[in-house]
Design goal:
With about 220 residues, the chain is α/β, with parallel strands linked by helices. It contains seven helices and ten strands. The strands form three sheets. The protein has a five-stranded parallel sheet with strand order 2-1-6-5-8, covered by helices on one side. A three-stranded mixed sheet has the order 3-4-7. α2 packs parallel to α4. The longest helix has 19 residues. The chain is elongated and about 70 Å long. The two termini are about 40 Å apart. It binds S-adenosylmethionine.
Length: about 220
């Protein structure tokens, strides 16, 4: 799967070159490239932003550098194009799985007050928020998106991990334990050493239901 991130701060993307995603890129399972859309501005001072027309608001990223950048890297609009913004539907695990089927996704990172709405309307297919809070820029949201979606690309992680984790079947995961058997006076649940697969599965189901009820109680 190929990702192209449009950003003014390509140096921020170290996490995508590290650990599991770094290894997947080296193995050719992922291709992640950063493009600085400042390189496409026609402004002689290399400016990419200007004051908002809304009184009191700060700088807004202008249409021209972003539109010209897209024309250069995806002239026929073959890629799925996403703008990260808090003013959008919140990313869900279901959408993460759907997005993993695209061959090429372009992600635009906003900054400052945001991006001129006209270039979003004219050139992008989808807007995504990573949660109900505002960050300084779209770089961290873009990394969240790339990480979450890339886990579902074949060969990036062990597929078993994807079938037994939070949000599969709408539930949160049961607690995990490792050695030692007793730590700080707290013992690992006895049933996990029983060798009784049915009893272990029952414990997992009940623990998962309890965690889900605690943190995601059903609205009554
Ligand atoms: N003025 C905007 C608003 O009130 O909705 C916030 C702009 S924010 C300071 C700058 C950029 O950070 C946004 O254009 C977006 O790309 C990114 N950003 C901030 N919070 C985000 C979130 N929760 N989800 C996705 N992107 C976000």
């Amino acid at each position: 799967m190929r990702w192209t991130i449009l950003t003014l701060f390509p140096e921020m993307f170290v996490p995508l070159k590290t650990s599991i995603l770094g290894r997947a890129s080296k193995a050719g399972k992922l291709q992640i490239e950063m493009v600085n859309f400042r390189d496409y501005t026609v402004d002689k001072h290399r400016k990419v932003d200007d004051h908002s027309y809304s009184p009191g608001a700060g700088l807004v990223l202008a249409c021209q550098p972003i539109a010209d950048c897209l024309k250069a890297i995806d002239p026929e609009h073959k890629a799925h194009r996403i703008f990260m913004t808090p003013a959008a539907p919140i990313l869900s695990q279901d959408r993460v799985v759907e997005l993993s089927h695209y061959e090429h996704i372009i992600v635009l990172c906003g900054h400052y007050e945001g991006v001129d709405q006209r270039v979003i309307d004219a050139c992008f297919d989808e807007v995504i928020s990573i949660g109900e809070y505002v960050l300084t820029g779209g770089e961290i949201p873009a990394m969240v998106l790339v990480d979450a979606v890339s886990r579902y690309v074949d060969g990036v992680i062990n597929q078993d991990s994807l079938t037994m984790e939070s949000y599969v079947d709408g539930k949160l995961e049961y607690p995990q334990y490792t050695r030692p058997r007793v730590w700080n006076g707290m013992a690992v649940p006895e049933v996990l050493f029983s060798g009784n697969h049915a009893a272990i599965q029952k414990w997992k189901d009940e623990a998962s239901a309890a965690v889900t009820e605690k943190y995601r109680p059903k609205k009554k």
